[in-house]
UniProtKB/TrEMBL annotation:
This is Glucose-6-phosphate isomerase. Its main location: cytoplasm. Its EC number is 5.3.1.9. It catalyses: alpha-D-glucose 6-phosphate = beta-D-fructose 6-phosphate. It comes from Eubacterium coprostanoligenes. It is found in: Cytoplasm. GO terms for biological process: gluconeogenesis; glucose 6-phosphate metabolic process; glycolytic process.
């Protein structure tokens, strides 16, 4: 399978000659990436993942997923950022954002440890009442505060419900291969462990055990997901910008940025893509937003948000943003609109029409309205919302993001800004070693 990228509805803002002008820089950025000579080149393990993954571990993931499906009503997935968003994005995209409400033969999957909200934590604990539970804790560093707090609670819950031996079989740790608190604990307690490879950063890790175990538990075919990613790996290599969708997309979004459009709005017409948009926001925001540079990623699900943010985009978006629309050409579960006697709602002109057609007309109408309003639209087309297509899209966006970051002149693989809030939070909580900082911050806050 392949994917189509179309920038023709943006030509009044980013012209073919703009793209031609930036093309050499984009090709150079891709060469820097593929020759592994750029900044952050120790985090490029994701490039070969679709072909060069640990096959023994992949089989263990499938076996563990089967074990969890057989022995648990609920899987608790603990993680934050790149250790959370990818799995949830894929499960909701391929299954449904109503996954937990569906009639199914796979466990409920609850995500926790992605905030420090006690109400959310308590809610998930109570949802486990009377249920058989397994836990997959995911943290590359093994020390991130949010998942560490949640893991304390759920480890305790498992330990209090099951024998020591049974408890050990119900906890699965995805972490560093050799080091970290979580790895030490897993080895000591005999938990099954999976690896976040050293050379794969959190937001590029969905195709490792980080994403694959929860995705497999949800009943999604992880071979298909990897196949899609592998197709993308093989297809998105051309140095001709017209023949490489990832290269062209990376170039065009930089053209928008250089023309002062500092926001990219990821748009889908499928609510099931809501969390995929969140994954995209992390991927691009954390990779490019540094050194005072980078597009600010936002997202919308249309037509829902046409009744809220659509107003802003139409009338105030032109000088600051563009839209990247991910479109699926075939609907897997369509609905045909009925004729109704009396035509009271006046909708009989749609009788016999597929709802997917109505959705697409809304998309086309919006495309015309927003581009006339001065907001450029980039269109990414995939065949359908399936595991293979999502695997392809994941790799497409990862590669485009890395190239785009190099065009922009940043290291797309670090996240130094994430540390600032942590330092302050630890100081304010009185963590040993932060005493003088605590006093200073409390004065600043006037506490
Ligand atoms: O992309 C990233 O590197 C981050 O979002 C991390 O995934 C996030 O901070 C969680 O880190 P860890 O897996 O070490 O708990």
């Amino acid at each position: 399978m392949s994917l189509k990228f179309n920038s023709k509805y943006s030509e009044s803002i980013v012209s073919p000659s703009d793209i031609e002008a930036i093309a050499p820089k984009a090709v150079k950025a891709m060469d820097t990436l593929m020759s592994k000579t750029g900044e952050g080149n120790d985090f490029l393990g994701w490039i070969d993942l679709p072909t060069n993954y640990d096959k023994e571990e992949f089989d263990r993931i499938k076996k563990s997923a089967e074990y969890i499906k057989k022995n648990a009503d609920v899987l608790i997935v603990i993680g934050i950022g790149g250790s959370y968003l990818g799995a949830r994005a894929v499960i909701e995209a391929v299954k449904s954002y109503n996954y937990n409400l569906l009639a199914k033969d796979t466990p409920q999957i609850y995500f926790i440890g992605n905030s420090i909200s006690p109400s959310s934590l308590n809610e998930i604990v109570s949802l486990c009442d009377g249920k058989d539970v397994c836990v997959n804790v995911i943290s590359k560093s093994g020390t991130t505060t949010e998942p560490a707090i949640a893991f304390r609670v759920f480890r305790e819950l498992i330990n209090s419900r099951y024998s020591k031996e049974e408890a050990a079989k119900r906890i699965f740790c995805t972490t560093d291969a050799n080091k970290g608190t979580l790895k030490e604990l897993a080895d000591k307690e005999g938990y099954e462990t999976f690896v976040v490879p050293d050379d794969v950063g959190g937001r590029f890790s969905v195709l490792t055990a980080v994403g694959l175990l929860p995705i497999a538990v949800a009943g999604i075919d992880i071979d298909e997901l990897m196949l899609g990613a592998r197709n993308a790996q093989n297809e998105l290599c051309d140095t001709d910008i017209e023949k490489n969708a990832a290269l062209k997309y990376a170039a065009v979004r930089n053209c928008f940025y250089n023309k002062g459009k500092k926001m990219e709005c990821f748009v889908s017409y499928e609510p099931n893509m809501t969390m995929f948009n969140e994954w995209l926001k992390q991927l691009f925001g954390e990779s490019e937003g540094k050194d005072g540079k980078g597009l600010f990623p936002v997202s919308c699900v249309f037509s829902t948000d046409l009744h809220s943010l659509g107003q802003y985009i139409q009338e105030s978006g032109a000088d600051k943003m563009f839209e990247t629309v991910v479109k699926f050409n075939n609907c897997l579960n369509d609905y045909v609109i009925d004729e109704q006697e009396g035509n009271i709602d006046g909708l009989n002109f749609l009788a016999g029409e597929k709802m997917s057609v109505v959705n697409d007309k809304a998309r086309l109408g919006t495309l015309l309205a927003h581009t006339e309003g001065g907001v450029g639209n980039l269109i990414i087309e995939a065949d359908k919302l399936g595991a293979e297509e999502i695997g392809y899209l994941i790799y497409f966006f990862e590669k485009a993001c890395a190239i785009s970051g190099y065009i922009l002149g940043v290291n797309p693989f670090n996240q130094p800004g994430v540390e600032s809030y942590k330092k302050n939070m630890f100081a304010l909580l009185g963590k040993p070693g932060y005493e003088s900082e605590k006093e200073k911050l409390e004065k600043q806050l006037d506490l």
